[in-house]
């Protein structure tokens, strides 16, 4: 078992869904050793989008961002593991796919800042993971379980 299990919110954005990248992205987190504890395939409404991206309200790209994130279904998920929030952010790459290293999700799967495939809670924003999980999931929708490989994944 991890000494410091943490849950983080991840979402495959509408472009990732339309491009058939859900499986590729889930596979990367599974391979890394993170545990899926919640998943929901939904089309989010404007209110939820504005709440979720509330920190960006007033910025010039806010309207386009809300428009984009509500433009089609998303795959919302909660992943758990040691240092999960920071590790997922590292796996995602930079906000701009063009600045993201090969090997990262955005660096391998995207080209454009406004179509960057994936969202993950910001590890530099204290409590963002818990806030975002609560926006998308009820506690009862999150599943506590112990994958059998935990004993080989953590010292
Ligand atoms: P991240 O998604 O890496 O956490 P963020 O929270 O700063 O990045 O921004 C949220 C999303 O908004 C981002 O995934 C893409 C879009 N975005 C950010 N900065 C932008 C900009 N300068 N122009 C256009 N879209 C931007
Ligand atoms: Mg962010």
Describe the model.
This protein has 8 helices and 4 strands, in the order βααβααβααβαα. It has 155 residues and is an alpha+beta fold. It has one domain (6-144): 2-Layer Sandwich (Alpha-Beta Plaits), CATH 3.30.70. Strands 2-3-1-4 form a 4-stranded antiparallel sheet, sandwiched between helices. The longest helix is centred in the N-terminal third of the chain and has 11 residues, at 22-32. It is globular and about 45 Å long. The protein starts with a strand and ends with a helix. The model has no long low-confidence stretch (mean pLDDT 97). It binds 2'-deoxyadenosine-5'-diphosphate and magnesium ion.
Please tag this protein with its features.
4-stranded antiparallel beta sheet, Alpha-Beta Plaits, binds magnesium ion, 37% helix, alpha+beta, 155 residues, binds 2'-deoxyadenosine-5'-diphosphate, single chain
Quick synopsis:
The chain has 155 residues and is an alpha+beta fold. It is 37% helix and 18% strand. The longest helix has 11 residues, at 22-32.
Which class in CATH terms?
A: Alpha Beta
Q: Taking strands numbered 1, 2, ... along the chain, how are they ordered across the largest sheet?
A: 2-3-1-4
Q: How would you state the average pLDDT, rounded?
A: 97
Q: Can you tell me the CATH topology?
A: Alpha-Beta Plaits
How many distinct helices? 8
Structural class: alpha+beta
Low-confidence stretches: none
Biggest sheet layout? 4 strands, antiparallel
Helix coverage percent = 25-40%
Order of helices and strands, N to C?
A: EHHEHHEHHEHH
Beta strand count: 4
CATH architecture: 2-Layer Sandwich
Distance between the termini: 8 Å
Radius of gyration using CA atoms only: 15 Å
CATH homologous superfamily placement = Nucleoside diphosphate kinase-like domain
Overall geometry comes to: globular
Query: How many domains in all?
Result: 1
Ligands and ions found = 2'-deoxyadenosine-5'-diphosphate, magnesium ion
Strand content: 15-25%
């Amino acid at each position: 078992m991890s000494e410091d299990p943490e849950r983080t919110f991840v979402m495959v954005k509408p472009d990732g869904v339309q491009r058939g990248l859900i499986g590729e992205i889930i596979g990367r987190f599974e391979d890394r050793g993170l545990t899926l504890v919640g998943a929901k395939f939904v089309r989010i409404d404007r209110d939820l989008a504005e709440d979720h991206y509330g920190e960006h309200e007033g910025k010039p790209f806010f309207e386009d961002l809300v428009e984009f994130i509500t433009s089609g279904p998303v795959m919302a998920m909660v992943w758990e593991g040691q240092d999960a929030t920071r590790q997922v952010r590292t796996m995602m790459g930079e906000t701009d796919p063009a600045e993201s290293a090969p090997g990262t999700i955005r660096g391998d799967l995207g080209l454009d800042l406004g179509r960057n495939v994936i969202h993950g809670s910001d590890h530099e924003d204290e409590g963002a993971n818990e806030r975002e999980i609560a926006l998308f999931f009820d506690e009862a929708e999150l599943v506590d379980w112990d994958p059998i490989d935990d004993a080989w994944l953590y010292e």
